[in-house]
Amino acid sequence: FPPKIEHLARDTLKNPIRITVGSVGKAADKVVQHGVVVKDDEAKWTWMSDHLATIVSKGQVLVFAKSKVVVDELATNIKEFLEIETVAIHGDLEQGDRNVVMFKFKKGQAQ
Questions:
Q1: What is the DSSP letter of 24?
Q2: Tell me: the pLDDT tens digits for 73-99?
Q3: Positive or negative: CA dihedral 29, 52, 41, 71
Q4: Cα-Cα end-to-end distance for the chain
Q5: What's 15's DSSP letter?
Q6: d(CA 111, CA 93)
Q7: What whole-number distance in Å separates Cα of residue 87 and Cα of residue 44?
């Protein structure tokens, strides 16, 4: 966990317990991770729009963004311009909406 989360847990909880599934800092064996370095935000979108359909054809994809606004913008752009069904999740969603997002992703109803 990030240091701020660790600190919050220690300050807030009595005897917090960390539960780890798999190895810390290591992806699950079935998860394939790829990194791509691009010049700027415009290049990110260009790269994604050129490659996302191919990547999605091989399985589901998680895309992380730096802010809630960018998450919503990406989800909208991917749906509208790339015609790929997406769901977005971030801290401004109500818990019920988060549950729906997770259900859709787990059931393969969103890429």
A1: T
A2: 999 999 999 999 888 888 888 889 888
A3: negative
A4: 26
A5: S
A6: 19
A7: 19
Distances (CA, A) of 46 to 18, 40, 59: 39, 10, 21
Q: Kindly write down the DSSP assignment for every residue of 39-56, as one continuous string.
A: SSHHHHHHHHHHHHHHHH
**Cβ contacts of residue 111 below 8 Å, gap of 6+?**
56, 60, 61, 84, 85, 86
Dist CA 69 CA 65 (whole Å):
9
Tokens encoding 24: 């810390």
Tokens at residue 29, please? 């064996």
**pTM summary value:** 0.65
Structure-token pair, residue 68: 């809630």
Which tokens go with 37?
């370095």
